[in-house]
């Protein structure tokens, strides 16, 4: 689905921001990209839909070399939701904002209406359909930006800091929505600092630091690696931090982070 081959990138008159990135994101993957500010996370995902082109190396999306295809042609396959929704929103009303891409891609008017109404209801935005998106809260604007991408059902959904400005209820609704998309065969990539959200919901993670991949694999294993988190300036999930403190106090034996998290997730699945 997404293949990054020895990607190097730098902005004009700057040092390299990405340095030899190689990774694969298979179809129907659910992946988090973590890292400190300036690690290169947003720069990396902007290569996934051709907004940025490699200085060296290449990026393949659905078999297409992004260097040889326009952003417009790649956007139908890869939907990118920006960290700051104000960089993405422009229409006079929420309805027009969400409908824009569908009309641009040539969907029939009846299908545009059906899709817009459905996604506005799912994201609890239907009451704002005739309101300017710029009059909404940050969290609501982020949901409008998300709706404007979800409505045309791209093969790959990339979200940059989607939980910022969302309360616990909206985070849980977002998690449920993203999991449904994965279950339907979509590929979801989430760029975030929210390690609690990642630990609870996203099975695979990639950790960047200073433009390089420092770790990739199962989320709980990476977020249990004290040395790795310290080297990449990431705070551990609260549960991990508690277990580390218990261990340092000599309270043994203690269950592993993976065992405790799995038990908590199992309890959550069984709760009514």
Question: In which range does the helix fraction lie?
Answer: 25-40%
* CATH class designation of the domain at 1-77 and 187-235: Alpha Beta
**Sequence of strands across the biggest β-sheet:** 6-7-8-3-9-10
Architecture per CATH nomenclature, i.e. the level-2 architecture of the domain at 1-77 and 187-235: 3-Layer(aba) Sandwich
What quaternary form is this?
single chain
Q: How many strands, what sense, and barrel or not for the largest sheet?
A: 6 strands, mixed
Radius of gyration: 20 Å
CATH topology of the domain at 1-77 and 187-235: Rossmann fold
Task: Describe the overall structure.
With 272 residues, the protein is an alpha/beta fold. Among the domains are: 1-77 and 187-235, P-loop containing nucleotide triphosphate hydrolases (Rossmann fold), CATH 3.40.50; 237-272, no CATH class. It is 39% helix and 22% strand. It has eleven helices and ten strands. It has helices at 41-45, 71-75, 94-104, 109-122, 138-150, 168-183, 195-201, 219-222, 226-231, 238-248, 257-270; strands at residues 2-10, 16-25, 30-35, 56-61, 64-65, 78-81, 156-160, 187-191, 204-209, 212-218. The strands form two sheets. A six-stranded mixed sheet has the order 6-7-8-3-9-10. Helix 3 packs parallel to helix 5. The longest helix has 16 residues, at 168-183. The radius of gyration is 20 Å and the shape is globular. The mean pLDDT is 90.
